[in-house]
Amino acid sequence: MSILIVVDNPRDWPLDLPGVSVVPARAYLTAPAYGEGRPVKVFNLCKSYRYQSLGYYVSLLAEARGHKPLPKVSTMEDLKSQNLVRLLTEDLDDLVQKSLAPIKSDTFELSIYFGRNVASRHEALSHQLFSRLQAPLLRAHFERRRDLWRLRSVRAIAASDIPPSHQDFVVEAATAYFMGRRHHAHKRAAPRFDLAILHDPANAESPSNPRALQKFEKAAEDVGLAAEFITRADLARLPEFDALFIRDTTFANHYTYRFSRRASAEGLVVIDDPESILKCNNKVYLAELLTRHNIPAPRTLMVHHDNVDQIVSSLGLPCVLKQPDSSFSVGVAKVESEAELLVKVNELMQKSELIVAQEWLPTEFDWRVGILDRRPLFVCRYFMAAGHWQIVKREPGRTGYQEGPVKAVAVAEAPEEVVKIALKAANLIGDGLYGVDIKQIGNRCYVIEVNDNPNVDAGNEDGVLKDALYREIMGSFVRRIEARKRVNA
């Protein structure tokens, strides 16, 4: 994908960047070559973004042509309202105070070049402002009031506004920004679309192990996607991509949800989409949904402060208590006695007004059915950890965990009722990628939960399909991107 820097006059960008073309704004707007449908990323550094100016039309036509402009017209509009700017940045107050603490004057001007500042102590603040106000060159103005720094305004600046003393740094920042996005480009020829894979290298409980991530990258290449791994620091870069694949553990009140929400708003294909994250991450919602649609599940009670005394009579003991946003066996407890029950209920209700209590259904293993595009993708048996009642065993006060073995099963060899009930449950959420957990007791099946962002680990879920599993998921992205582009054509 080619990169264009668009300026009013090429003399406004006297900086030499390898592999980047500098184009006059009028040429970009009028020359037939720039109207072609080839993949282009446009960095709009015109002097003005006011309504119907050259800079305004550069970003507007770039979007119409299917190019990827920075800033987008919506960002230009955001920057016009300093009240909106302050709203978008209000959660940065602690970072502002820390970054500007050594400043002696009562005003301060921060220049932000592709998310960076010449002073390393301001790098974090610069990056966060850039992630919220996505323009290549920004200038933020702060003032001190009652010993606290406040953001007064942020505006986009033109290339001609860069002080000569900053030019070498801007070349470094821009080069690092461009090359950071393209460091995988040599691995594949002429990819059709760009895919961001969000992951956290420090997360030991990631939904895909390192070998699986490598297989996703290879599968993406096979189907015409340029895959790049991004982290939580890369929120500002989402408009550069056509799709986002989240491979970190998702939560509603979490950076993964913000990425999903932002990507969806930018028009990217997203797995997991924000609605699926919200629905699957709340066990109260899932319990109500399954009940409403008559999908078999363990006997369940929504617990609040006024019905705690009904748990034992309704479910018996032992029973299972779940905080609404429990994940990976965290926030889930089996209680054996009424005394233990009251202690655990009180503990969980410190965090949520509602919790979920369910009857305990002991089984040797849980079924996991992977669903994608409303079709079964894989089936596994998740066996309980040795000497434990869950598939994951954690020792109180100790880091790490033990997992039971995982055995992949061909979809055609899994019990028909297991697959059928999994599809019915997942289809209530959407058409994304889900993992439906089911307990089977005799001929009866019970849905335990529907997970967004299910595990896809090399050596586990891919036990039957092997590399075809990764190609199928990547192929779904291609089909979704193509369908979205046809709608928008």
Assembly state (oligomeric): single chain
Ends distance: 20 Å
Beta percentage is 25-35%
Radius of gyration, CA atoms, in whole angstroms: 26 Å
- Summing up helix and strand content along with how strands pair, one would put the structural category as alpha/beta
Spans where pLDDT lies below 50 across 5 or more residues: 182-189
Structural features, described:
The chain is an alpha/beta fold and 489 residues long. The protein contains 15 helices and 22 strands. The chain has helices at residues 25-30, 54-64, 73-80, 82-88, 93-100, 123-132, 167-182, 210-222, 255-265, 274-280, 283-292, 311-315, 338-348, 416-427, 467-488, and strands at 2-7, 21-24, 40-44, 68-70, 107-113, 137-145, 148-156, 193-198, 225-230, 243-246, 269-271, 300-303, 319-327, 330-335, 355-359, 365-372, 375-383, 392-393, 402-403, 406-409, 433-441, 444-452. The two termini are 20 Å apart. The model is unreliable at 182-189 (pLDDT under 50).
